[in-house]
Amino acid sequence: MEEVTSKQQNREASKKPQTEAQAHGYDPNKYERPSVTVDVVMMSVRQKDLQVLLVKRRSWPYEGMWAIPGGFVNMDESLEDAAKRELQEETNVENVYLEQLYTFGDPGRDPRTRVITVVYFALLDSERLHVKAASDAADVRWFSVYNLPPLAFDHAKILDYALSRLRGKLEYTTIAFSLLPEQFTLRELQHVYEIILNKEMDKRNFRKKILATGILEDTGERKMEGTHRPARLYRFNPAAEHKL
């Protein structure tokens, strides 16, 4: 009796539409479906320079060329989950905060097929990372954003955009503080701004402007910087973030 019931249930199931979309008369094959990838731009201040983490591609297309870490999105995962997975698979980097930056979808940007990529961005202290080439990359290395090797796909365009957005964010966000230790001097903070903007800034004007925001807390401690008198150590005050 159980076998008969099971067969009846299977026959009934086979009569039902396979998906809710088909039940409403929607044909998923009516439109072409482009592939979707995620790319992760990771930047850090290293060796008095603004650097980006790149991987060397292991396979076609652009085999042997340097590229931004990334890959295809699986059908059962979110964009952010895909970005974190690809980052781990190619660079062994985990547990970093990612911010969605922009979407690039020019036809022909990928010789394999029509590919739209969603770019994520992370700005962080490289000393906290243990970077190494993982399963999907032949090598992984930090490069100066001002002296990049030839890049695969449209990744040079993506990095140009990321740098432009980063510079813009200095004016109205606290993004620069993610590149500093918990306590820092005003000189160290100015140095981060100068590296990102790729230009020198007037010391007096910079300090006047940043102190006027109230976003810094004086820790009461000091730090030696060269032969000068000890410099004040500050820390970021999250309660004043809205003042930028």
UniProtKB/TrEMBL annotation:
Alphabetical list of InterPro entries matching this protein: Nudix_hydrolase (IPR020476), NUDIX_hydrolase-like_dom_sf (IPR015797), NUDIX_hydrolase_CS (IPR020084), NUDIX_hydrolase_dom (IPR000086), WH-like_DNA-bd_sf (IPR036388), WH_DNA-bd_sf (IPR036390), WHD_NrtR (IPR054105)
Keywords: Hydrolase
UniProt keyword annotation of Hydrolase present: yes
Biased composition (Basic and acidic residues): 9-18
Annotated stretches, region: Disordered: 1-32
Residue ranges occupied by any Nudix hydrolase domain in the UniProt entry: 35-166
KW ATP-binding (keyword) present: no
A Pfam short name: WHD_NrtR
GO MF terms held by the record: hydrolase activity
Protein family membership: Belongs to the Nudix hydrolase family.
PANTHER family, per the entry: ADP-RIBOSE PYROPHOSPHATASE, SLR1690 PROTEIN
Protein name in UniProt: 8-oxo-dGTP diphosphatase
Annotated organism of origin: Thermosporothrix hazakensis
Phylogenetic classification of the source organism: Bacteria, Bacillati, Chloroflexota, Ktedonobacteria, Ktedonobacterales
